[in-house]
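As promised in the previous annual report, we have extended the structural survey to additional targets. Below is the entry for Chondroadherin-like protein.
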Amino acid sequence: LLFIQVFLTIAATAFAIECPPSDKLYPCSCEEDEGHTIVQCEGSSLSELEPAVKNTVGHNVSFYFTRCNLGDIPSDFFKGHISARIQFQQCVVTSFGETPFSGLENSLEALYIYSTIDRSVTKMDNFNLKHLQKLRYFSAAYNDIGDLGDHWFEGGPASLTQVDLDGNKIESVGATALVSLVNLQQLYVGENQIKYVSRSVLPNPTRDLWLIEAKSNLIEDLPENTFDGYPILKIVNLAQNKLKSIPENVWGKVWSQLESVYLEGNDIVCDANIKWIYSQKLPNTFDGKCGPGNDLEGRELKSLKLEDFE
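The corresponding structure token record, generated without further manual editing, is:
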């Protein structure tokens, strides 16, 4: 028993998460956050912070870069590390290399890129994440992307469960942009300029997807097969778009399983085309109002009854 206690003590010490010595980190700093040791670098160039990255090889650290001018980041910049998280915020990056984050294939779990990608500056032609086999969470938010091509997630990684692409000025999405993300659970594409939705973007079926958030876009219509193959979909947020109806041939396939539907900010015409909804149980949350078109204008969707359509 004593041997086991001593062994566990040694093991806990060996895998203890602690900051490396400060002389290895300059010009960066270090703090512990939610069980992760984070090396934070702010306002530095790639050459200035490179020693901090190289000197911490062998330490279990993640990296947050804020307002750094990084230019072309070599593919192997993090080679030798076992980082679980990498974050860029308000940085200047001209490319992430031919094989982004090479060397972190079996450790990187979360990648955050905030206000960093600029389509006029950042070369994204070769940006692909399929080799990051442990990546579960990807957030690229409030960048200037424009076109989300098929190549970003071509081939995976299948490990991804949550993708956040909010606020990226996305105008077009590749026909198969997310089709390799077979274990996706949550998708956020709000606050973009998306007009058209294609079912081919995601795998069919998408067995684990329970949340789709696409608020504040320019979506006018949903194809008939929009909700095909989502056996556990629970939450749909299409608020602040340009939808005018909730047709049964689109929504009827998932309506009975939905718990929350957000449609506020759309001009839904409350006519016979949505009457079918009120012969069924409404979702627990059903937000939105009737738009122009008849005397039901201004009524809350959740307040309507079958007799309102007589």
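Residues 259 and 283 are 5 Å apart (CA to CA). DSSP finds three helices and 16 strands in the chain. These points will be discussed at the next consortium meeting with the crystallography subgroup.
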